[in-house]
Amino acid sequence: AADLMIELVQDDDSNPEYGPAHPTTISMRYQLSSSLLWLGSYEEAEVYAREASQSSSASLGRTHPLTLEALQVLAATYRLEGKLAKAQHLQATIIKRKARAFGPVHPRTLQAKADLSETYSAQGLWLLCQDILEEVSSVAVRDLGPSDPDAIRYQIQYATALKNVGRYDEAETTLLSAKALSEDVYGPKHYATVRAMDVLSL
């Protein structure tokens, strides 16, 4: 599938009706980078995500959703490649741009902050990870509702951060609450329910 997408991107690049700056071509480049990231081809994903973000920024603007999504994939490739300082810097930029474009408590902005917490975690910056996830989870519970899948996911991530800083009782309380909500609303086999149980068992 990735090989076919590469061919399609190359075809659009050379097509006079499209070209590398056309939204369709940019979108395909972004989707290709996302697929390559999922497949573990981080170096290729980085190349296509960078090209997509640069083309989108130049033709659609720095706060266009497509630009921001491409940057998000680029930041993820940096993190998975171990380029943690670059990932952290880019994720901070994404948060600022998403806050400007969508608002500071928009779900897309919250997701960007949660992504940054993963980079903090990879660097062992547990307190920074805890602080940002406390904000993200509380806003998600308030605005999306406690039984929203993303709110439950952020609660589980926050509980994991609490465990990493030694706040075990609070972590357990948060996990039990998230597990009960997920199990009640989505069932015992839902990924959030299973994840909460996994973290509880650690």
Describe the structure.
The protein is mostly helical and 202 residues long. The protein is 81% helix and 0% strand. α4 runs antiparallel to α5. The longest helix has 19 residues, at 84-102. The protein starts with a helix and ends with a helix.
Mean pLDDT metric: 89
Helix/strand structural class = mainly alpha
Oligomer: single chain
Span between termini: 37 Å
Topology as H/E string?
Answer: HHHHHHHHHH
Major β-sheet annotation: none
In angstroms, what is the radius of gyration?
Answer: 19 Å
Low-confidence stretches: none
Shape: elongated
Extended strand count: 0
Strand content: under 5%
Number of helices: 10
Q: Portion of residues in helices? A: over 70%
Key terms for this structure?
single chain; 202 residues; mainly alpha; 10 helices; 0% strand; elongated
TL;DR?
The protein has 202 residues and is mostly helical.
How are the elements arranged and paired?
Layout: H1 2-14, H2 23-39, H3 42-59, H4 65-80, H5 84-102, H6 107-122, H7 126-144, H8 149-164, H9 168-186, H10 191-201
Helix pairs in contact: 1-2, 2-3, 2-4, 3-4, 4-5, 5-6, 6-7, 7-8, 8-9, 8-10, 9-10
